[in-house]
TrEMBL record:
Its main location: membrane. Keywords: Membrane, Transmembrane, Transmembrane helix. It is found in: Membrane. This is MtN3 and saliva related transmembrane protein. InterPro entries: PQ-loop_rpt. Pfam families: PQ-loop. It comes from Paenibacillus pseudetheri. It is a multi-pass membrane protein.
Length: 89
C-alpha cells in the first residue's frame, strides 16, 4: 500500500515541474529563475537517489527509486533549459 502511495505521490511531484518546463519552452525566458536554487535541488535529489539505489539493491524502495529518478530528470531538464536560454539572452 505504501509503495503505491509513494508512486502516486512521486509521480505527482514530478509532473508538478511540467508547467514550469512548458512555460520556459513557450517564452524562451528564464530571467526570473534562480539557477542556484535548481542546482541545490539537483544536489539534494542526487543524494536521495544514491539512497534510493541502495534501498533498491536490497530489494525494497523500488517505488522510491522510480519516483526519485523522475524528479532528478525533470530538475535536470529545467537546469539545462535555464543554461540554454540564459546563454541566448
Amino acid at each position: 500500500m505504501f509503495a503505491i502511495m509513494q508512486l502516486i505521490g512521486g509521480v505527482i511531484l514530478s509532473l508538478g515541474w511540467i508547467p514550469q518546463i512548458i512555460q520556459i519552452l513557450k517564452s524562451k525566458s528564464v530571467a526570473d529563475l534562480n539557477l542556484k536554487s535548481y542546482l541545490l535541488m539537483l544536489f539534494g535529489i542526487s543524494l536521495m537517489e544514491a539512497y534510493a539505489i541502495s534501498l533498491a539493491v536490497t530489494g525494497v524502495g523500488l517505488a522510491f527509486l522510480i519516483t526519485n529518478t523522475m524528479s532528478l530528470c525533470v530538475v535536470l531538464l529545467v537546469i539545462i533549459l535555464v543554461l540554454k536560454y540564459r546563454i541566448r539572452s
